[in-house]
Amino acid sequence: MTLPPSDALPAWLLERLQAAGGAVPFRTYMEWVLHDSAHGAYGSGHLGIGPAGDFATAPSLGPDFATLLAPQIGDWLIALAAVPRPLALVEAGPGEGSLALQLAEALVAGWPQLAQRLELVLVEPNEGMAARQRALLQDCPLPCRWASFAELAASPLRGVVLAHEVLDALAVERIVWDGALWRQQLVALHEGPEAELSLRLEPGAPLEPAAAAQLEPLGLLPPLPQRPPGWCTELHPGLAPWLGECAEAVAEGQLLVIDYALEAWRYYAPQRSDGTLMAYRGQQASGDPLLEPGAWDLTAHLCIESVDAAAAFSGWQPLGQCRQGQALLALGLAERLHGLQQQPPAELATVLARREALLRLVDPRALGEFRWLAYGRGLDRQALLAPPRFLQEPGL
Ligand SMILES: C[S@@+](CC[C@H](N)C(=O)[O-])C[C@H]1O[C@@H](n2cnc3c(N)ncnc32)[C@H](O)[C@@H]1O
Fold first, then answer.
1. What are the E-state strand segments in 226-370?
2. Which is nearest to 106 in space by CA: 115, 97, 116?
């Protein structure tokens, strides 16, 4: 289907690109199409998360994910509760707000005393999404408020920060190898033979020496004999500022990042010649980030070493990491699956749907490949050395 020109190159984007001289770095484009408050997919709040929306996330499949995660959050909060001060559960990038609500319900039901000292804080820069979260969390059983990390930093909290599928929405820098040099990738206006305008990805100026220095730990310093000209990948300049702001907001506590992530050797392997960037809309996936700008979600995997380095730089200490499949089995997913068999036959349809959702959470071809990366701040030695429950043997 040929798209009408207004969808392929909306007027607002044309104006911005013209004002910028006809081209901008990919990172600027991604920031606009995701987070612009009037036109961005998240900024305007028109992306829908869930099986009936644009893409599904683990909590949008049902409450089992939150119920399995709750004991891990409970463990961390109980350890922090030794000091008689208020506690916070912070969700950054709450999307529809389902995970925040499901966790609040699970914590109130399972840890009522702890919950009396607990508030829920939502960090959401996009007003369009925050409006939907407020509606869903109207009857939340925990007191809740919305704040930025900068606002929280005025009185840093004790608690747990959860970042589930949010860091993959930070705008990435795309870089292209031209055979001799790394160049920043641009999104540029292209004039066709009939003077019609369209968007095009093209290589821009060589990377600044400071940016090129980041390439060494990723194995991307020239010479790069196995990468042909045009080989393209992503860098994550938004990670360090985000983790730094998050750190300023937390006096003592844990950060759990759950996201698509790969080790550097996998991320930057020669055969991955076009990075990890994907676009999602209406349950469709595409590798073309220029499709209907502002209507599709754009997402790039995290590089585990880049997250670790940015976290360490901001004062986060590593607590452990693994694949989601392993984490959820440690937290009791197999027992939950088994428990479904005891449900009355009248609930067969619900049981089958829950069974499918649970299997999807651990399926290595689906959400099971997600990584859980945990960090701590302001914690004593004992808390830093204790392995999180999600890394222990199932059933312990
Ligand atoms: C894929 S959705 C996350 C979905 C949700 N966590 C879930 O599990 O269903 C990404 C969310 O992160 C928000 N977001 C984007 N950039 C952010 C940032 N810099 N800080 C916090 N949230 C951000 C988006 O507006 C959106 O709410």
1. 232-235, 250-259, 261-262, 278-281, 284-286, 297-299, 302-303, 317-323
2. 115
The CA distances from residue 21 to 39, 121, 281, 388, in Å, are 20, 41, 30, 51
Q: For residues 59 and 258, what is the distance between their CA atoms, to the nearest angstrom?
A: 12
Mind listing the domains of the chain with CATH numbers? 1-35+173-235+265-292 (no CATH), 61-171+237-260+301-331+371-386 (3.40.50.150)
Total residue length of the chain: 396
Q: What six digits make up the tokens of 185?
A: 């990738």
Question: ω into residue 4 within 30 of 0, thus cis?
Answer: no
Q: Considering only CA atoms, which residue is closest to atom 3 of ligand 1?
A: 95
Protein residue closest via CA to atom 2 of ligand 1: 95
- Measured in angstroms, how far is the CA atom of residue 258 from the centroid of ligand 1? 12
The pLDDT tens digits for 46-55 are 899 999 999 9
* pLDDT mean over 347-371: 90
Among protein residues, the one whose CA lies closest to atom 23 of ligand 1: 93
How many angstroms does the Cα of residue 240 sit away from the middle of ligand 1? 17
Nearest CA to ligand 1 atom 24: 93
**SS3 state at 146:** strand
Using the Cα atoms of residue 104, residue 152, residue 319 and residue 240 in order, give the sign of their dihedral: positive
**Centroid of ligand 1 to alpha carbon of 163 (angstroms):** 8
- Atom 12 of ligand 1, nearest CA residue: 93
pTM, full prediction:
0.96
How far, in Å, is the centroid of ligand 1 from the Cα of 298?
12
Q: What percent of the chain shows pLDDT beyond 90?
A: 88
pLDDT in tens, 362-377: 999 889 899 999 999 9
Specify burial of residue 224 (Cβ count, 10 A radius: 0-12, 13-18, 19+). Answer: middle
Cα of 147 vs centre of ligand 1, distance in Å, is 14
Q: Ligand 1 within 6 A of 249 CB?
A: no
Q: What are phi and psi of 13, to 5 degrees?
A: -75, -40
